[in-house]
Amino acid sequence: MNSQPTIPPGIVSAEDYETAALERLPADIAAWLAGGSAGEWTLRANRRAFGRVGLRNALCRVPRTVDTRVELLGETMQHPLLLAPVASHGLIHPLAELATAQGAQAADTPLVLSCQANTALEQVAPHLSHGWLQLYWQQTPERTLRLIRRAEEAGYCALVLTLDAPVQSPGRQAQRLRFELPSHLGLPNLEPALRREAVPGQSALERLLKDAATLDSLAFILHNTHLPVLVKGVLEVADAVELLGYGVDGLIVSNHGGRALDGVSATLDALPLIRQAVGAQATLLMDGGIRSGYDVFKALALGADAVLIGRLQLYALAVAGPLGVAHMLKMLQEELQLCMALSGCADIAAIDPSRLRVGQI
Amino acid sequence: MNSQPTIPPGIVSAEDYETAALERLPADIAAWLAGGSAGEWTLRANRRAFGRVGLRNALCRVPRTVDTRVELLGETMQHPLLLAPVASHGLIHPLAELATAQGAQAADTPLVLSCQANTALEQVAPHLSHGWLQLYWQQTPERTLRLIRRAEEAGYCALVLTLDAPVQSPGRQAQRLRFELPSHLGLPNLEPALRREAVPGQSALERLLKDAATLDSLAFILHNTHLPVLVKGVLEVADAVELLGYGVDGLIVSNHGGRALDGVSATLDALPLIRQAVGAQATLLMDGGIRSGYDVFKALALGADAVLIGRLQLYALAVAGPLGVAHMLKMLQEELQLCMALSGCADIAAIDPSRLRVGQI
Amino acid sequence: MNSQPTIPPGIVSAEDYETAALERLPADIAAWLAGGSAGEWTLRANRRAFGRVGLRNALCRVPRTVDTRVELLGETMQHPLLLAPVASHGLIHPLAELATAQGAQAADTPLVLSCQANTALEQVAPHLSHGWLQLYWQQTPERTLRLIRRAEEAGYCALVLTLDAPVQSPGRQAQRLRFELPSHLGLPNLEPALRREAVPGQSALERLLKDAATLDSLAFILHNTHLPVLVKGVLEVADAVELLGYGVDGLIVSNHGGRALDGVSATLDALPLIRQAVGAQATLLMDGGIRSGYDVFKALALGADAVLIGRLQLYALAVAGPLGVAHMLKMLQEELQLCMALSGCADIAAIDPSRLRVGQI
Amino acid sequence: MNSQPTIPPGIVSAEDYETAALERLPADIAAWLAGGSAGEWTLRANRRAFGRVGLRNALCRVPRTVDTRVELLGETMQHPLLLAPVASHGLIHPLAELATAQGAQAADTPLVLSCQANTALEQVAPHLSHGWLQLYWQQTPERTLRLIRRAEEAGYCALVLTLDAPVQSPGRQAQRLRFELPSHLGLPNLEPALRREAVPGQSALERLLKDAATLDSLAFILHNTHLPVLVKGVLEVADAVELLGYGVDGLIVSNHGGRALDGVSATLDALPLIRQAVGAQATLLMDGGIRSGYDVFKALALGADAVLIGRLQLYALAVAGPLGVAHMLKMLQEELQLCMALSGCADIAAIDPSRLRVGQI
To answer: Between D164, D178, D210, which is nearest C59 by CB?
Structure first.
């Protein structure tokens, strides 16, 4: 089933899947996957932020056991890791999201399915021990509700409403290489877009903005599902506080992997300010720039309950299929465990800001 | 008419015209256009300054409409963009400033014609929906007045007096490549320079300095035209305040694109200090280092009413003639609109410092 | 005996041995030796820290004599230098640690023998004028004690207990090149590892953590030897104070040359904070990133009584055998003397923070 | 007489002589000239410091005349420039210091002759309108006095005692290329070195240190000449104040062009602190890293009365002989004049810290 069933030599850390995948993928797909929006300022900032955070070693207080379990929305996860929603896995693997789901399951890792997946969410669900569905506002309440109902019926455990990317386009390099989604890749979770009547003087951009989620959209969703609802794309403290006040069940600090508004802050920089504002009890996740278990550790210490892994999942999928996804996740988990051990953290609760050196590096 | 009527593939952002043009232009002209004075410290600083300013996303508060109109000197402009005065478009395109003007008009963008244009200002005027004339002090009041009268009669709407470059020479690389203005390119807007009597002990530099504009020159111009007069080259707060007190109608924060005194501050760094000093009502423009609509947004948020586009206009002209100029301007406009939408700004007035993250990146 | 008995041309400073060795060594061994753990953040930080510290010149107060002697644990050393414990010299030279010991002795420099040496400590001892033994906790008190007794009987003068690396693996590049310790290289100082019973649910990492040193291990060692005991791997002020309170005879500020927990601070950055906390009397050494006598001077000025030379010793061994080790140490000593002279320091006691410019560079 | 009598194309600024010379000179001589001591930290710092200082433009207040004259030790100089003492011009040009002196005279620039010149000071003197002699302490008072007497009799106007380099060796790259002073180049200003009796236990370094200048040496010189005496190598405020108290006539802030103690501060960084401490009246010069008239301007604004040009003089000599030296100096002077004009400084006295932007760049 998987045409690349082996891990190539030279993959000795999760991060190695990035180099390996970018060598193997067609140039346009590699550019689409690796690129960020506009000048890629935020893309770079995401990575650089991790370099500004240092660790502390534990010496004689290395724990004997290392427990990475974490509770999230009432469920116990084996590791504070989820696969982030990424569109169109069909670009990367013939089995598309089914391949990714197999890898996720093998590594005990929940997957957040993108509503822009190339596989019907009902088909993916049986392969997930724990799955969430990501969605955008679907132009009308009715259309949005139909998608939510499908998710509920298929057994998804949570909804993730992405707020930071009402308009999307490939990065500049992908555009230069004329990247396009191949027509054979369907979007079986979405209804065909409603054609909007042209309004005189309205720009193409403004036509897209009409379908952006609003606070009303959010309220509608919150009142029409029993599933927990998280919002994704939060970077500003005021937004975080307001959205929790609105009743969302969790926040995901994200900048769409540097693919939305170029110039917004690195997620690792936004994270501690938001945790401080929302308090210890709020469910707070993050993604952006994570390439190792050390990065996971830093995000947890700065306030994340768990992190989502975006590009790395597709890099691993490109290189070694489901096996690659599972292997990449295992390596992240092992790096996290090693980092916890040498930092003196026997469990996830022990990972707090006192374990870091920020601004002292 | 235009020998390069198509946009080459690979141009997916305004900034791409820079690379494309520098590949296509003869090396000496490319060096003349791209270079700055001396060690190019200010040239680099202009660009770097934009990298220190971050943005904020709007999440649920993305506007439905984006209005980029701005009022400037009593006129409504469709976009907060003007083409900056640049000498000798004949180096770049056989139709010289006429080509640029066509592109500007197609993109609803005012052009500030350089008095060192290779085309008579009267010839350019009909191609402009809105044009300004840039000038230097012309050695004597009479000569200066004759140029102003021509501008008034040809229908130019404003005068821009450049103050920061009483002495000009090509950058070092252009000099090394022996760049010279070809003799066939005329300067039909300027009278032949007066030969000055040699004064014993006077250096070549001092001969040039004799013709630099003074506060008296400025006063003379202000009292002898009904057109609004803006001064270009302002970087210091004290100068800004003094010049407004003198009665100028607007200030352009500029360092001549890093081509005047090397070592002066980046325009984006000078801009907010000057806006703070001159108050909200003063007309304040800027140029220097703008390569994208994101850069435009940052300049507006830091106090500019509008920005001038210098090198990019000639890069676009070099690559695709008038069509290139229009295309480049359209891309800047669209990038600005996208940036406004994702930042939550429905109109230009909404773009203020609260939209930025300065010193937090 | 030594197949490379001459110093190659081009070696004009201790640091030159690094380049020369990395050119000569097989790629996998070079990667093993030069690499750090994970992303090599700490490896780079070690070097960068020296660049942030400046010196002051002495002008008319250059001393006539320069005395580099220092007293350490009651012994007088000719120079404030020791060879750091590094495993498996057999990878680098056919005579393994015997070759290094010859070089050390020729340069009047103590050697800290790694317990992972390829040569029996009893064999090395006669070649050392002054030797220390480094050790890890050996799974049980009895096994650890047997190693200590061997050291005592062979005449080693101090024990160094390494605390920062309970788990070890080669760096990523070495792993990619499939670096492995060749089976012909023995570890004659270590008993075969005890096979631990598998505990259900216990990870491979946790099996290793069971054998990490604890405060109890340390107490056992301190109470069962008459030799002075130093602990290696200290980076945090709180650990430094606690360990001295426990009775250790000295601290070595170290991050295992960037080979243990990636992200911990540079040793030069940690050093002055620790010296300040432990007071002037505590025995305090450091290693990490030293490549010249100037670096030695900076470390001494920031609080080290002496420094340990790690990678450079094996680089020199690789390039020119025992002669290289001696030559490298002589160059370090001469650079230190020159630096002392030009800084106005007639002896080691004169090297204090007033000789530096920190944060003023 | 001069085998390279023309300025090569491509030399459009003083700095261009650096590139041109390093391409033309034999590799070992290029390395000797361009290199600094040890890790070249200070060498790089000298240049970097200029990049941290910004300028301000003058707009309507550009002066009509620019006067670069400056008074130094009672003499009027046409420009605030001197040629710094550099040893062994014979390495660069067959006429050695005579060639440099011709260039200096053509550009109205004083030369500070190195006592390690390859030409007798009496031979150089007639070619200088204004010359100073640099010297080291010559082992004994008598020997030193004989050198001073020669300088006095030959008409030198001042003595410069270098204090920062009691020990000298070529930089590492020059050593790697086996750079040596050719035996045919004499040192006609120095008596053969006294052979010192070997003292048991004394190192080679210590033998050299015995001949370093002390405060007593300085006092001897000050009491035995009517010439003004400047000391060179001052970087620390305390030294500056003490040396002036001792009666020296002027200070030269210098780090021997990054060739003495590696790690000492950039001269431009030390300069303003020293000027502040010694007051406006003290004679204060500097060298180190100057490559343009803009750099000269910054040094003057930060407190120098004049600057010395070191490497650039030999670069120009290598490229175009005496003509090159004169041309390089003319370009520095013209760049300085342009910088003064655009900064609004009609004379040297107007160049003060208010003309700079420090820490605001």
So the answer is: D164
